[in-house]
Design brief:
Length: about 550
Amino acid sequence: MSTEPREAGPCWWAWACWCLVGGLVATLWVAVPRGWLVTDRFTFPKALLFHAAALTTVGCWLMGARRWRFDRVSLLAGGFVGLGVVSTLAAHNPWLAFGAVGVSLSGAGLFLSARALAAAGYRDVMLQGVVVAVGLLAVSMVLEAQGPLAGFSTMNRAPGGLLGHRNRAAHLLVLALPVVWLCVLHARSRARLGLLLVMGTMVSWALTLSRSRAAWLAVFVVVGMGVWGWWRGRRDASVTSGRSVLLLGALLVGVGVALGLPNVLEWRSSYGDTLRRIAEHDAGSGRGRLIQYANTLHMVGEAPVLGVGPGNWTVHYPRHATPDDPSYTVDALLPVEALPQADWVGLLAERGGLALLMLFAIAGGLWREAWRRARQDSDSRARQEALALMSVLAALTLLGGLDTVLLTPTATFLVAVSVGALTRMRGEAWVVTPGQGARVVARVCAVLVMGGLLAYVAVTGWGRQLAFARPQSETLLSRAARLDPGGYEARVFLGQWLTRVGRCEEALTHFREAGELLPHAEPPQRGASRCQRLLQAAETR
């Protein structure tokens, strides 16, 4: 959906733009002190800011809108979110489903807002915001690799910089490369051009240090799209300008510095070994990924249309894990990770084939429109934006098949802003001019839904912090369980604590609640069995 820019309040549109850009920058940069649970230091504040940015951006957007314009892409985006909501009805764990579908809902709101803001003249501001956000992310990754921020990331995930995870950080960097190229082409001063080239160098440097094989493959795709664009427009000075050559040189400098400058990363293999294993599938993480894909497809067979529910992959996967599956640890508190190892397989399992087809239809519609612009548009800027959009979509398609991208708030935010800013609405399905009452209802609904998501993330995040606080106490664990109705870990910890102090009847209640949330996890079952044995022994005495 888009809105008619001429009838929008300019103040509200400006506020919406700054909420969007400021929220993206803050989301990528924020992390909380080391006293928090290691993973939550990054995921909790970023999810909180992601939903806060969606709430404020959509709220300002709706305040200024007078007419709503719908096209096929906006209708498909609404349909994808709607199918996610419907699939929550089949979810075993509704709390996980609520959180997962909330990411899609806020992401769709940010995407539609970015499209409307681009049509209203804020395209360059959003694209420059993307470059600033990923540029500083790249700087943080380099600083971690060189020593000043050593140990900042989660264990075995350095250099992740401000994102705390090198693979996920590398995904964002490669997805932003086409936007960096576009901004370099249109820099209005030498100072800004120089700064953008430095950012390009830092992005390339950080990408090389990350050793993310999926990101490296995506870089090849982006470069291939650039070569295609040069071939198509080799007579167009705007495409074959010296600025593209300068950016290529800056990227090569970044690679050279990363290879030649010593760092504090304790890699056991060379960059050449990583490059040679870039398509490895018969050993290591590549083999584990294929095993997980195959096991997940068994899950798809049980619910092919609507899936097992958003976020509920982690609930059902233990039933399908095989003995040789490295992603499954039977004795762990959480036997599998919270997210699958790839977007497309995970979305297919969680939301079904219809939702995945709808998501691909959105990408296909955007690609078709960009292809038309790249081949036929008389405006060189429009052709360059189309090429950048096609590069982002191609890289996203590859990354989503190999890693988790759109299932995370930070990547969803970056993709929503980048893709939304690079699109140009052409065809329309219809135009709606709502009355004052309908506009008020829309604003109230947006505030209630997105505000509810924000409140849920804030309360449950604080509950997780209490659950993992040290030293443990019954007061903290009980409060954590009350704050987070889907708090599996808090209930297991509380049951274990009550068992240790001899209150097994109360502990059984919490173990059963945890077992209902994750029925195929071993810790609640083991805890309940131990309590029952202790109670039986007490009765015999």
